[in-house]
Amino acid sequence: MSAGETRQPMTARAGAALAGTAEIPGDKSVSHRALILGALAVGETRISGLLEGEDVLRTAEAMRAFGAEVTRDGPGRWRVHGVGVGGFAEPDRVIDCGNSGTGVRLVMGAMATSPIAATFTGDASLVGRPMARVTDPLALFGAEAVGRAGGRLPMTVVGAREPVPVRYTLPVPSAQVKSAVLLAGLNAPGRTVVTEAEATRDHTERMLAGFGAEVAVEDGAEGRVITLTGQPELSAQTLAVPRDPSSAAFPVCAALIAEGSEVRVPGIGLNPTRAGLYETLREMGADLAFEDRRDEGGEPVADLVARFSPGLRGVEVPPERAAAMIDEYPVLAAVAACAEGATVMRGVGELRVKESDRIAAMAEGLRACGVPVEEGEDWWIVHGRGAGGVAGGATVASRLDHRIAMSFLVLGLAAQAPVTVDDAAPIATSFPDFLPLMRGLGAGIAAEPVAA
Ligand code: S3P
């Protein structure tokens, strides 16, 4: 079943303390990149801990369509036999990326400097999302894209026959755009240079270097400048995917707001370009401990222990932290609803073009749960009700957005009356075992029977 085909309502109710250890699945961002770079390397890349969510499975399928051999050996254990940089074949079918903005944008980048054409599509959420932010820089390499009005999917990209390297400054803080440009730069001769004013997640740069590409990263007056030397030979790697800090955020935040809880989440990726939520939670007064900080597979990780934190206070989140926690604002808003005072989030216009308009989706659901929210184009303020102060008792729309669904289920664990999400099916895109994992910790979350 893919997200959106069958509605799966789910309800969360307060009452139980969460306790135990949460084994979080692999990082979604790293998983996409491992498959794509594995497909562009020479030889066989072995991946462990791959996230087997729908988004990543779509990227695996896409890599097969471009000619790579992709094999599943066991849970999270995959092999990719790559075709080498410039070796992509033209797909004989439409590439359906499902719900995944990362999948479609990175794959477009990876094929845009090969002399092949590919047609991309996605689900009702993805076909509404902007693609010009990627196809504009890909045009500088010589690629052409024809899609629907406003640069929407379905869209056909014709790769450049004679690609030229590009110098590009990101107009929006987006790791997807940065990564699409770098992946396109792989098959252009000479140096491709990307500048970003704000540091976004750097998994692509790290992994490119790991596969043997020449990548230099410098901090300059205009921000981070990444220089990639094109047409390297990438050599196959053995990769361990760290556990996803964005998925860990849900049980961690649930533990902070559900009375009496204590949850341990081992081996969470804490790349500084991803860890902004945890800093913000600490500023709010969260009882969070980071134990055994270490490096795994080129990424910093630690074991997190989160305990019920009745004295949470609203904070002003620094706008310069937005990129390092862009996917965590929805669940932060659930925590903010249970804090005393206002949580102010500015400089977050990108939230409006995610799997859903996340400011609108959260504001609507929070208001229905008795939490006042103010919003503007690129800011929002959640007025917290304090511990035990959120009324709940509403059914909220998840809008084909996994993180909206999980955020309201977390909120329901601390609300006075149950919170129902109209459709929890999208959770399978990033966190297929969310329900058994949360129930294993004792959370009162249950799928509602669906009328036949
Ligand atoms: C991602 C980048 C972010 C993030 C998404 C994953 C990535 O999107 O929201 O979930 O893996 O590069 P943007 O690059 O559009 O900010």
Map the helices and strands.
Blueprint: E1 10-13, E2 19-21, H1 28-40, E3 42-48, H2 54-65, E4 69-74, E5 77-83, E6 95-96, H3 101-111, E7 117-121, H4 132-141, E8 144-148, E9 152-158, E10 167-169, H5 175-185, E11 191-196, H6 203-210, E12 215-220, E13 223-229, E14 238-240, H7 245-257, E15 262-269, H8 276-283, E16 287-296, E17 299-307, E18 316-317, H9 329-337, E19 340-346, H10 358-368, E20 373-376, E21 379-385, E22 395-396, H11 402-412, E23 419-421, H12 434-440, E24 444-447
Parallel strand pairs: 2-15, 3-14, 6-7, 10-11, 18-19, 22-23
Antiparallel strand pairs: 1-23, 1-24, 3-5, 4-5, 7-9, 8-9, 11-13, 12-13, 15-17, 16-17, 19-21, 20-21
Helix pairs in contact: 1-2, 1-3, 1-6, 2-3, 3-5, 4-5, 7-9, 7-11, 9-10, 9-11
What is Rg? 21 Å
Identify every distinct bound molecule in the structure, by name, code or SMILES: shikimate-3-phosphate
Architecture of the largest domain in CATH? Alpha-beta prism
Taking the alpha carbons of the first and last residues, their distance comes to 16 Å
Number of strands: 24
What structural class do helix, strand and pairing data support? Answer: alpha/beta
Largest sheet: 4 strands, mixed
Q: Uncertain runs with pLDDT below 50, 5 residues or more?
A: none
* CATH evolutionary superfamily of the largest domain: Enolpyruvate transferase domain
CATH class of the largest domain, named Alpha Beta
Kindly state the mean pLDDT as a whole number?
A: 97
Percent of residues in β-strands: 25-35%
Number of domain modules: 2
Helical proportion, percent range: 25-40%
Name the strands of the widest sheet in spatial order.
22-23-1-24
Tally of alpha and pi helices: 12
**What's the overall geometry?**
globular
Task: Indicate the CATH topology of the largest domain.
Answer: UDP-n-acetylglucosamine1-carboxyvinyl-transferase, Chain
Catalytic activity: 3-phosphoshikimate + phosphoenolpyruvate = 5-O-(1-carboxyvinyl)-3-phosphoshikimate + phosphate
Active site: 327
Subcellular location: Cytoplasm
Domain Enolpyruvate transferase: 14-436
